[in-house]
Give the backbone structure.
Amino acid sequence: MATDFTEETATAAVVESFENTPDPRLREILGSLTRHLHDFVREIEPTIEEWEQAIGFLTATGHKCDDVRQEFILLSDVLGVSMLVETLNGRRAAAATDSTVLGPFHVVESPAREQGESIDLLGKGEPCVVTGRVVSVDGTPLPGALVDVWQCNEQGFYDVQQPDVQPPGNGRGLFTADDTGTFRFVTVVPSHYPIPTDGPVGALLTASRRHPYRPAHIHFIAGAAGHTPVTTHIFVAGSPYLESDAVFAVKKSLVEEFTAVDDPDRAADFQVANPFRLANFDIVLEASS
Ligand code: BEZ
Ligand code: FE
């Protein structure tokens, strides 16, 4: 005799339906998802129209995705889920560089570039040099470490957002640390910018009176043999929105001074126009176990 599906029996019935899932991790996830989702529905008691609206929102989120646009990552970002997942997975030695969100714009492979080369292919904006060393937690330099960087331009747009204005690879570079673990590149100071608001996530922000802005930053993924890679940013000290990043990704340890330098000799050494801004970012990686 079948048991009626009631408010009281609903959750147990669905959890039980997953009990033969052979993969224990998947079984755990499906059970937990069911319990939390049912609790959520019980708490908010959606009307049929509200539930249809929710399905419509998720459908529109999927339709907004393509090769260079990831609306689901954006949704996860503004709900603070990306940052929570990153934080739970980023528990490492206190000395190791903090991680932060990947974001939706690491959608193309960064072009390999030489030490000191410019990632700015347009020559607009405020010239800037970024230097740093990749080291292990005990301070040992990590020669050959790969440092993947990407950033928006001085107007707050990534190359993939402006295919008619920016050449592919503008603001992107893959660098290899030298014998002392040092990396260096020339760029322009990035701007703060709004995350894309022309999709369902933008509508959600508008409906909740939240602003869409991120403070100015440069993205990094750094990795070296025998070490856990880190996905992170440096934030430009003094940038607007450091206190209210739309995706909750600021960590104090990642805010760096972009110091103004007016020194033609140093500019010549760095092959950058004078005056320029100089930022240093040492990246500390934890040995993988
Ligand atoms: C980014 O920094 O590229 C980014 C991160 C989260 C949402 C949108 C953009
Ligand atoms: Fe970004």
Residues 103, 105, 217, 219 surround fe (iii) ion (ligand 2) (CB under 6 Å). The longest helix spans residues 24-44. The mean pLDDT is 95. Residues 89-285 form a domain with the Protocatechuate 3,4-Dioxygenase, subunit A fold (CATH 2.60.130.10).
